[in-house]
Amino acid sequence: xxxxxxxxxxxxxxxxxxxxxxxxxxxxxxxxxxxxxxxxxxxxxxxxxxxxxxxxxxxxxxxxxxxxxxxxxxxxxxxxxxxxxxxxxxxxxxxxxxxxxxxxxxxxxxxxxxxxxxxxxxxxxxxxxxxxxxxxxxxxxxxxxxxxxxxxxxxxxxxxxxxxxxxxxxxxxxxxxxxxxxxxxxxxxxxxxxxxxxxxxxxxxxxxxxxxxxxxxxxxxxxxxxxxxxxxxxxxxxxxxxxxxxxxxxxxxxxxxxxxxxxxxxxxxxxxxxxxxxxxxxxxxxxxxxxxxxxxxxxxxxxxxxxxxxxxxxxxxxxxxxxxxxxxxxxxxxxxxxxxxxxxxxxxxxxxxxxxxxxxxxxxx
Length: 365
Prior knowledge:
- The protein is mostly helical.
- Helix content is 72%, strand content 0%.
- Helix 8 packs antiparallel against helix 9, helix 9 runs antiparallel to helix 10 and helix 13 packs antiparallel against helix 14.
């Protein structure tokens, strides 16, 4: 989950003119920070009130900014210099319109002139699209979810997702999608849960992932140590934000009885985690090159931060999970060969011990 910081700022705002009423977003930012604060201390009523205020205040601020800019830009003097941002700002400085310049600069400094193609028209168009507050909408969804009001929660998550293009942190979109998938699970709508997890992986990636899954499944069916090493030698995947979605989809497909899909998505989770670690090690150790799974785990012991990342993202669990699914599907030798490596070199003690117990269980059976 994205970590929320709690900062409480107390100040007064002097309502001298239109711009000063909404200067630099302080009013809506304060309301949102207060909402996060009350959410963290479980005062959900106050959190909800402040989040709703934040949405309203932001809308009011954007409307005020647009009105102020359009009023100045409509003047004959300003129109005469065209749409070039620098020329417009120079003219506004001549006219003493510091408030307009502050509004423009607050966006230009954050995104750069090139983002707006150095056009003041594009700046105004962009500002008009900023009147939503997806972070606050997501927070309201979280509050309703905790209160068991799942329909209201879903509505606000949908709004947050719809407005996700203006999130301050673009990758927060994935948190919204994961939360919506979890909400679907809580309400028992499993097909909707599947759909939302697939949205995390990206609709544009479905065909690519299916092709990769089919190829990995064919490799696993080799059912020997060579197949294990080939899985890690031949395949790479770099959609790291989908790592959890792959594992959750694997669980879902197993429960639904689609073992090929369950193994495929489990393998995709394993290969995705492996690809990230392999890539980082390659950059740090220029003499390193993947040869076998055993050698990879041996090299991995030198990188505590990578091991920690794997623990935090359930990577080591995903290896054991793949072994379990492969055994269940009849690929026992593949499972056994990978488990032998994990029993010796899995970086997390719990999953290392589980691998040992699994080997013992398989030898008895």
